[in-house]
Amino acid sequence: MDNSASPSAPPRRTRRIALLGLALLGLAGAVFVVRGPLLMAAPMCVSGQWQGCFGTFNGVVLMTLVALPLAALVAWALARRRRRAGVTSAWRMSLAEVGMVHGTVPFLWMTMMPGAAPGTAPARVSLVPLRDLVTMGPLGIVGNLLVFAALGFFAPMRCAALASVPRILALGAGCSVLVETAQYVLRLDRVSSVDDVLVNAVGAVLAALASRRWWRTTAKAPSDRPRPALASAG
Fold first, then answer.
1. Membrane-crossing residues (predicted)?
2. Which 8-state DSSP code applies to residue 34?
3. For strand 191-193 and strand 124-126, is the pairing parallel, antiparallel, or unpaired?
4. Tens digit of each residue's pLDDT (9 = 90 or more) over 96-120
């Protein structure tokens, strides 16, 4: 009887529990940091003032946190369906897909919020690198780093073709260029800045490096490769 696979199960389960615990602690810490703005947005959402929920940064952050259980349920349903179909790495693929969407869409929504005079203010472009970093401030820099952080973190886990730093850098920069172009074309009274592109791309790369050990590769594990049939003796 071969019991070679049984000793690895408890450590793997323990690792998953530890990662889940760390994720919950990180989420709790993030909620504690932004508890003030969330408490400001919550009464408007409860009273049905949807402009306060989806038209302000605080409201979008609150809605993102409220939707976390739904995102977890979708990831579970996708993983269960894939496991029934015999798909390998079902959980990794499902978490990566849901994580990319849930972690990126709210930031895109916030970046596309119009300024004070949308449609009437002239479109503004800043093409001098590093000039706008001074005016961003720490909060603005952190926000720009997070815009495509979820995409950079989960994309290499989902797609082996993106499992390299240069490709993630190109992906983050390309997506950021599209956002800045949309801001300019739609005249949202926002500054389309090259520094936003640079910081967005750096944020995607840093997040990708944090998930490097879980990147999906094209090579199969030795245990998954078909073994050649043994020639019959004699």
1. 57-79, 91-113, 133-156
2. T
3. parallel
4. 999 999 999 999 999 999 988 898 8
CA–CA distance from 76 to each of 92, 96, 99, 102, 189 (Å)?
11, 12, 12, 14, 40
User: Reduced to 3 states, what is the DSSP secondary structure of residue 160?
Assistant: helix
pLDDT in tens, 187-196: 999 999 999 9
Instruction: Please list the alpha-helical segments (H only) found in the chain.
Output: 9-33, 35-46, 50-54, 57-66, 68-84, 90-111, 133-146, 149-158, 165-185, 194-210
> 36-43 contacts: CB < 8 A, separation 24 or more?
37/61, 38/62, 38/65
φ, ψ at 32 (rounded to 5°): -65, -40
Residue from 29, 56, 28 nearest 42 by CA: 56
Q: How confident is the model at residue 53 (pLDDT cuts 50, 70, 90)?
A: confident
Q: Where are the domains of the chain?
A: 18-66, 88-219
